[in-house]
Each structure stands twice: as structure tokens, then as C-alpha cells.
TrEMBL record:
Classification via Pfam families: MMR_HSR1, MnmE_helical, TrmE_N
EC number(s) stated in the UniProt entry for this protein: 3.6.-.-
Protein family: Belongs to the TRAFAC class TrmE-Era-EngA-EngB-Septin-like GTPase superfamily. TrmE GTPase family.
Protein name, per record: tRNA modification GTPase MnmE
Record carries keyword Metal-binding: yes
InterPro entries (alphabetical): G_TrmE, GTP-bd, GTP-bd_TrmE_N, GTPase_MnmE, MnmE_dom2, MnmE_helical, P-loop_NTPase, Small_GTP-bd
Length: 465
């Protein structure tokens, strides 16, 4: 992908579907001049140096006439793209958006290419390459896990350690090459032992990063499954049956579980972390066990916030638990919003004959005593894991695929540099391998890039991003 970096580009930055608001985005060195030719800005506004927002009117000719809109202007390089930029916020009507875009093009802008706004941000140094890919990940995210991963990458969780590793490697390379310059004076800037140790630390960091990227590329990361429900709903017994352990204490007395009980399990090639929590309850402040209960509830709520799946256990034998699921349930609704929710009717072997899952909004029924229905629950969890893996596509996975070879090369060059140092083969060979490792790391974050790499990264964006 090539880009005339000085051109002012324009694009519709919202889907071409009916929406309350739409945006036409512009960016480029003569962006302000284009807005003046469109008669969006006057002379005083064009000379300003501070970002501003203003309400304007734009004439689109017949039959659309004049429309009112808001314009947001960033007149200097302190914008997303690192260039003067503007956004026209209009009514979300496809004809109005297209006519406004046409007006910008007539005034001297050109249509933006896919991903060109974000590519300009990368070229201006406002984003590195992994963060640019994360922008696409945020746009394409279809579930909470994928969004969180993309936002984390956008915040620099991948690029920061790699940039630090590259900087450290450059410092070590400077010491090695300085020693080569003063070889006749027998001046040692860094000992071989220290060099080997530092290179091995960097190699370990890159191996860890590569392993993390492999997880993003398709290997199943651990899925947190939290068992929730009222006291004595059968959570602990179900955890023991699922994990085939006796990890949780099981009694007929409600409220036995206070602390979190965590067990690791694996089904269908996926890793799961099962977490048993205290039953939902509230006690009067005068109750001597109120402080313990309150702490248990806080622990359960914290575990729930970090869960991928809530297995909501319902006592199918009736009573308060049975009735609570017939009507609105605020905690249950919150669980459904924050994670995948599976409602399980427990104690299936003790069910009343008139029980039906619809009346309790249960997805399936299980018996921890006989094992009935447990395989169906495991199947639901495996289906969730497979759907999550299939959904984690787009830029964050694209980052993993793009970076694997570069990180593997950097690791190999560092290993070779360590070997040359141990064998006293000469610091010229060591420095050569270190330079190649620096270049390979730079390919990941974008300090080193080619047009082919930019094509692969930004060609996946939609126009206007």
C-alpha cells in the first residue's frame, strides 16, 4: 500500500446504515484549507491553533439543500493521525453523508483508502504496528474477551516489553561494538559472563512473548467457570463431580462454602478453571457471622467479575431457590450481561414430577448423585470454548501470525550470539547476530517495516478507520 502522506483524505467513518449520527472524517496537511473551501470554516477559525467544536451549516445543493451539523477540528499535529484533522458530525443518512463526502472531495480532498487514517497515525509515530493492529481488533471484537485482549494490546501490553528489550539489546550492542573499536587497548566494556547473562534474559523474555502470542493464535487459554447460586443449591457437589475430586466440602448444611475453591480441569482439549463460591445471601448486622458472610460475598463477586462462564445452580427440589428464578432476578441478569450464563437445575434425582426447565429458565438439569446431565453440561462448556476460539479472529490474531516468524528469528539470533560468546569465536560474530536480533524485534513493533508489511496490516481495515 502506498500513501500520498501530504494529501487531505476524506471518508465516511460510520456504517452506511440508518443511524442517529454519522461522521465524515478528514485529515491531511491542507485539511484546514479544504474546510475553508467547503465554507465550513471562516478565516478566524482557520488561523486558530487549538482544537474546537462548532455548529455549522453546509449547502449540498438541490435537492438536499442546507444541512446543520457539528464540526470538530484539530488544527495541528496533535491529532490521531499526527496531521490537521476534522470530523463532520451529521444526521446518519447515507445520502447526506455521501453528499458531504463529495463536497469535501470537490474542495480538494481525496477518498481515503482502507486503514489510511490509522496508517498515518503509525507513520507519524503515534501508534506502533501492534497497536495499529489492535485498533482493528477493537472494531471487530464480537465478545468481551476479544475486546479486552484488543484493548490491552492497544494500551501497549505487547509493544512495551518488546521495545524495552530492543532498547536493552541496542545498549548491549553498543558495548560490544565499543570493545571492538578499542580492541588494541584491551579495554573491556562488558564481560563475556555479563553479556551471556543479559542475552539469555532477553531470549527468555522473547520466548515468553512468543508463547503468549501462540495462545492468541489458537491454543485454548484457561476458561474461568464460576459456580454461583443460593446457599445449598448443590454448587460444591457439582464442582466435585465435574473435577472428579473431593476439593469442596459437601454437607447438608447451607452456607458450608465460605472461601473460594478452585480446581483445574480439561475437556475437549480446552483448559478450565472451576471456582466454587459462597451462596448468595445477606445477613442482619446483629448476626455474629455477618462479617464472615460479607467477606465471602465479596470474594464471590470478585470471582464472578473475572469469569468467562457463570454456571448458575438452581435447586430443582423447590423452595426459595425455585421461586427466585421464576421472576426478575437482578444478580442473575448482571451475570448474563458480564459473561456466558448457563442455568443448571441441580438435584435432578430429587425433582418434583411437575418440574419443567422453562418455569425456572434452566438450560439443563443435572444430578451430582447419579451423574445424569453432567456430560451435557461439560458439552456446553466445550462448545463455549470452541466458539470463543473461533471468534478470536481479526487483528489480535493477525498480530500473532505476523510476529511469530520475526520473534523466532530474534530468539535464534540471540541463541547464536550466546553460543559465539561462550566459544570465544569473536565479538564481530556476536555483534552481527545481535544486530539481526534488533532488526527482527523491530519488525514486530514497526521500527523496521516494508510496504508489504503495511499492505498486510492496513489492507484489512475498512475505509474511514
Amino acid at each position: 500500500m502506498t500513501s500520498e502522506a501530504d494529501d487531505t483524505i476524506a471518508a465516511i467513518a460510520s456504517p452506511m446504515t440508518p443511524a442517529p449520527r454519522g461522521i465524515v472524517r478528514l485529515s491531511g496537511h491542507d485539511c484546514i484549507d479544504v474546510l475553508c473551501r467547503m465554507k465550513v470554516l471562516d478565516t478566524d477559525e482557520a488561523s486558530g491553533r487549538r482544537p474546537f467544536r462548532s455548529s455549522k451549516t453546509l449547502s449540498l445543493g438541490e435537492p438536499l439543500g442546507a444541512i446543520e451539523f457539528d464540526v470538530m477540528v484539530w488544527p495541528t499535529q496533535r491529532s490521531y493521525t499526527g496531521q490537521p484533522s476534522a470530523e463532520l458530525h451529521l444526521i446518519g443518512s447515507a445520502p447526506l453523508l455521501q453528499s458531504s463526502l463529495d463536497a469535501a472531495i470537490r474542495a480538494g480532498a481525496r477518498a481515503a483508502r482502507p486503514g489510511e487514517f490509522t496508517m498515518r497515525s503509525f507513520l507519524a509515530g503515534r501508534l506502533d504496528l501492534t497497536q495499529a493492529e489492535a485498533v482493528l481488533g477493537v472494531i471487530e471484537a464480537e465478545d468481551r474477551g476479544t475486546l479486552d485482549q484488543a484493548l490491552s494490546q492497544l494500551a501497549g501490553n505487547l509493544s512495551r516489553p518488546l521495545q524495552a528489550a530492543r532498547s536493552t539489546l541496542l545498549d548491549l550492542l553498543a558495548d560490544v561494538e565499543a570493545g571492538l573499536d578499542f580492541v588494541d587497548e584491551d579495554i573491556e566494556f562488558i564481560s563475556d559472563e555479563a553479556l551471556i547473562q543479559r542475552l539469555d534474559e532477553l531470549r527468555s523474555l522473547l520466548l515468553q512473548t512468543r508463547s503468549q502470542l501462540s495462545d492468541r493464535g489458537g491454543a485454548s487459554s484457561t476458561i474461568r467457570v464460576v459456580l454461583r447460586g443460593l446457599p445449598n443449591a448443590g454448587k460444591s457437589r457439582l464442582l466435585n463431580v465435574l473435577s472428579r475430586t473431593e476439593s469442596a466440602i459437601v454437607t447438608d448444611q447451607a452456607g458450608t462454602t465460605r472461601d473460594l475453591v478452585t480446581v483445574e480441569s480439561s475437556w475437549g482439549g480446552h483448559s478450565f478453571q472451576l471456582i466454587d463460591t459462597a451462596g448468595l445471601e445477606s445477613r442482619e448486622e446483629s448476626d455474629p457471622e455477618a462479617p464472615i458472610s460479607q467477606e465471602a460475598q465479596l470474594q464471590a463477586a470478585e470471582a464472578a467479575r473475572g469469569a468467562d462462564v457463570h454456571v448458575w445452580c438452581i435447586d430443582a427440589t423447590g423452595g426459595d431457590d425455585f421461586e427466585s428464578l421464576k421472576g426478575p432476578n437482578a444478580v442473575l441478569a448482571e451475570a448474563k450481561r458480564s459473561a456466558q450464563l448457563i442455568c443448571v437445575a441441580t438435584k435432578r434425582d430429587l425433582m418434583p414430577t411437575d418440574w419443567n426447565g422453562e418455569s425456572m429458565r434452566a438450560d439443563l438439569a443435572v444430578s451430582s448423585e447419579s451423574g445424569a446431565g453432567v456430560d451435557s453440561l461439560i458439552e456446553r462448556l466445550v462448545q463455549f470454548a470452541e466458539q470463543r476460539d473461533a471468534g478470536e479472529t481479526g487483528s489480535v490474531i493477525g498480530t500473532a501470525a505476523r510476529c511469530q516468524d520475526s520473534l523466532a528469528a530474534a530468539i535464534e539470533h540471540l541463541a547464536q550470539a550466546i553460543q559465539w560468546t561462550e566459544q570465544a569465536a569473536g565479538h564481530e560474530l556476536v555483534a552481527a547476530e545481535m544486530r539481526l536480533a534488533v532488526e527482527a524485534i523491530g519488525e514486530v513493533t514497526g521500527q523496521v517495516y516494508t510496504d508489504d508489511i503495511l499492505d498486510r496490516v492496513f489492507g484489512r481495515f475498512c475505509i474511514g478507520k
